[in-house]
Write a structure and sequence with these properties.
two-stranded antiparallel ribbon; 11 helices; 12 strands; binds 1,4-dihydronicotinamide adenine dinucleotide; binds magnesium ion
Length: about 350
Amino acid sequence: MEKYSIAVIPGDGIGKEVTPEGVDVLEAAARLHGGFELAYAYFPWGCEYCLEHGRMMPSDGLDTLRDFDAIYFGAVGRPDLMPDSVSLRELLLKIRLGFDQYACVRPSLLLPGVLSPLEGKKPGDIDLVAVRENTEGEYVGAGGRAHPGMAFESAVETAVFTRPGTERVIRYAFELARSRPRKLLASVTKSNALNHSMAFWDQIFDEVSKDYPDVGTERVLVDAMAARMVLHPEGVDVFVASNLFGDILTDLSGAITGSMGLAPSANLNPERNFPSMFEPVHGSAPELCGKDVANPIAMCWSGAMMLEHLGQKAAGDIIVEAIKAVTADALALTPDLGGKAKTKEMTAAILAKMEALAK
Ligand code: NAI
Ligand code: MG
């Protein structure tokens, strides 16, 4: 019997509401598939913890997490308690950077029964994966403020692109593109305007592409990619982008597949020197919190990605197939998908489909 240890960080807002749903679904997948067990340790880190302890997580938080097989994360952010700049950087970004989770993988699939805000799209018309650079670029945190309160007060934030950091995420994206039927990879930059860092990225993309002659490539400027994702998302298979561009484009890719409540993500350290982290793309949605209406699918699907990373893809597939069956049959849909179901009702529908599929 394989055993995997999972660090669970529900975080804030609806993160706390969807995390138990995800854990229920993971437990069902383990039981129905068999052959492995999951053991969970819970960490109450987030904005409320910070009010009490003065930090988003303990100073030895990363050491505490280091030996887990994976981290299952809800969402962070309570702008009423803490500036977002603090909550994000002191918890989520600390883990992503501290554990060198450089490949942020975010699939977007238009599920059966889900209406895209784009007219006329059928299930599967949108089927793309974003690979977002997750440890450097625009979010590296290099910068500062000068002359506070004075008329010429200023702020500088510098993006940092290293050769190894750029090369490894591009290589990861090529490997992923190679594993998919269409084998297409778009590199998203803004090298017409950011002609130091992004021209450097283009150069490395071209170099790495020589090792993958079987993968079709193109370079797309980020503004053109934003338009393409609205006008013709069918043509997008895998794209790789910097931290900032990937962040923005994956909210767009989540939105065109019907709801932010559907979009899963994996923050991967592919070399497995550190645990990887699995979390929905969405945030803590404070306006939904306490209403029991948060869509649990993104959290459950992120759990399926975690099982795949742990070597239990077949168990993860039970979750993904059940999610597709629930949306296809319009069973217990939450309000973001046009239904009236509560969070727990949708989870119950997913669990019932998992049981049915496993028979
Ligand atoms: P958000 O992702 O929380 O919400 C964006 C929109 O999507 C809202 O209309 C919300 O109602 C909807 N939505 C999100 N998740 C949903 C779900 N599961 N079911 C149904 N609808 C859902 O982003 P927002 O509003 O910009 O940020 C809120 C807080 O979350 C802020 O404090 C922000 O810093 C934080 N945040 C945290 C992230 C993380 O932990 N990874 C990512 C993005 C934002
Ligand atoms: Mg985002």
